[in-house]
Specification:
The chain is mainly alpha-helical and about 475 residues long. It has helices at about 5-35, 40-60, 65-75, 80-85, 90-100, 100-110, 115-120, 125-135, 140-145, 150-160, 185-190, 220-225, 230-235, 250-260, 280-295, 310-335, 340-345, 345-375, 380-415, 415-445, 450-480, and strands at about 175-180, 205, 215-220, 240-245, 260-265, 270-275. The strands form two sheets. A three-stranded mixed beta sheet has the order 1-2-3. Strands 4-5-6 form a three-stranded mixed beta sheet. The termini are far apart.
Length: about 475
């Protein structure tokens, strides 16, 4: 979708959201007017209005894609959202739930009884049901599972048995397998007998009698080869595949690197148990991007825009507390040089520049290191080269922009010593920022912490404190 088309699509969604909110608002106003009318006429008028409003809303929602309905639900306040959700057709609710973010999904599921949830998800594939149930508490999950068909129960429990973040937890159980000694003509007849092919299918999985993976047969190979040939003669014998215990990030990396559309999933005995379609990988990429953007600002998970104030505040406390602590440390560094700042007021105006330029450089390095860690590109040799490169970049930028800042300082304050001090301070703080940008995410990962979650906050605190210290210490030595 082009940028112009995307803007048009979002504009369409915004208009749809406003129309639905308008209908719901008018419904509330009309209900209030009816309540003030004569009691004898109240019931009849209220019923007519309710039917008209519900029909209009249901028609509007029925015209939208499940993903668009989810977008609208996420943008509605809880009371209005509940009304709109009640008008979504039951057979479409499961598809809508799959598209909503975690916070809204938990809210919607929390208001539904187990039998209601079971009725909604019954229209979905087993892997999609497992995805939804994974967001529920264990007791509620088991209650819903008890309401499902036995076949669905077994498949859903199988998917739920895999840990979060593993390929097994995201695989699709709907796949087509064929034997390697089958003729291509027989495979074509098999496909014609299918009522429906799995989504995002571009290849058939080739197995032996015991279900072990032998290769894959692409649809191109099937359609363009001689029908008299056997599968074994034209198949790809060494396809890209994943074990159920592999990390989702590994699958994402492989799909991006090899431009995959789907890939087989096998157990430890290399028996095929499912496949990964590209839409599951796209969802994983989207979820990872959203999660990283939230973690970078100190939020541990998705937050409902209309969540209770106290709940949202608690979600933000930990990193605000850490920011407060680091800001206090930086203030103590400044306080240690209070006497020098009093003697030379220009220091108070210049020292934030040194700290901020260090933080900017360090964050650029952190972003590169985190990306390298995510792609498993940073071995010992690569780390040494990256550290050397970042140190070199810091030297060039520090010398260049330190000189620029020194010239500007000289023009403003007419002090050669002060200009030299701030120029050297910028260079030294960029060295510090480069070192911290490499070491902080590596240290967090070494201790089992998420580098994305804490690196930016810790880096800013470190470069601010060291920037103040370097600049004021140099000023204390050469200016006082």
């Amino acid at each position: 979708m082009s940028e112009a088309q995307e803007r048009l699509h979002h504009s369409h969604l915004e208009r749809a959201r406003e129309q639905i909110i308008g209908l719901l608002t008018r419904q509330a106003v009309e209900r209030d007017l009816v309540s003030r009318s004569e009691v004898s006429k109240q019931d009849v008028v209220a019923q007519l209005l309710a039917r008209q409003q519900q029909a209009a809303l249901a028609t509007k929602l029925g015209q939208l894609h499940p993903a668009d309905i989810a977008f609208i639900l996420e943008a509605l306040p809880p009371d209005v959202r509940e009304t709109a959700w009640g008008l979504v057709k039951p057979e479409r609710r499961g598809a809508v739930l799959l598209e909503t973010n975690e916070a809204v999904l938990r809210a919607l599921l929390g208001d539904m009884r187990p039998e209601e949830i079971a009725a909604v998800v019954r229209h979905l594939d087993s892997d999609d049901i497992a995805e939804l149930l994974s967001e529920m508490e264990e007791d509620a999950r088991q209650a819903v599972l008890a309401k499902l068909d036995r076949d669905d129960q077994a498949e859903v429990r199988s998917v739920l048995s895999f840990p979060d973040g593993s390929v097994g937890s995201m695989m699709d159980l709907d796949f087509l397998s064929i034997r390697e000694d089958t003729s291509l003509e027989a495979v074509l007849r098999l496909l014609r007998r299918q009522k429906q092919l799995p989504a995002e299918i571009n290849q058939l999985i080739v197995v032996d009698r015991a279900g072990h993976l032998r290769g894959v047969l692409s649809l191109d190979q099937l359609l363009l080869s001689d029908p008299e040939q056997t599968v074994h003669t034209v198949m790809t014998a060494e396809p890209t595949f994943f074990y159920t215990g592999d990390a989702v990030d590994d699958a994402v990396t492989a799909f991006e690197k090899y431009d995959l559309i789907s890939a087989p999933v096998v157990n430890l005995h290399k028996q095929v148990v499912g496949r990964i379609p590209v839409d599951a990988v796209v969802d994983a990429i989207k979820a990872r991007a959203q999660s990283e953007s939230l973690r970078q600002v100190g939020l541990s998970g998705e937050e409902d825009l209309f969540a209770p104030v106290v709940e949202s505040a608690k979600n933000r406390w930990p990193w605000l507390a850490l920011n407060l602590l680091t800001a206090f440390i930086a203030s103590r560094v400044i306080g240690a040089f209070e006497g020098i700042i009093v003697q030379l007021v220009a220091l108070a105006a210049l020292m934030p520049i040194v700290a901020s330029i260090g933080g900017n450089t360090g964050n650029q390095t952190v972003a590169l290191v985190i990306r390298g860690l995510a792609l498993n590109q940073l071995g010992p040799t690569q780390l040494r080269k990256m550290f050397s490169k970042e140190f070199g970049i810091a030297t060039i930028n520090g010398a260049l922009w330190g000189s620029v800042l020194g010239v500007a300082t000289l023009a403003l304050y007419h002090q050669w010593a002060l200009a030299l001090v701030i120029a050297v301070s910028v260079l030294l703080n960029l060295w510090v920022a480069a070192a911290a940008g490499v070491l902080i995410p590596l240290t967090l990962q070494r201790f089992g912490r998420d580098p994305v979650m804490g690196s930016s906050v810790l880096l800013t605190a470190f470069t601010d404190s060291m920037g103040f210290f370097i600049f004021l210490a140099l000023a204390a030595v050469f200016l006082v």
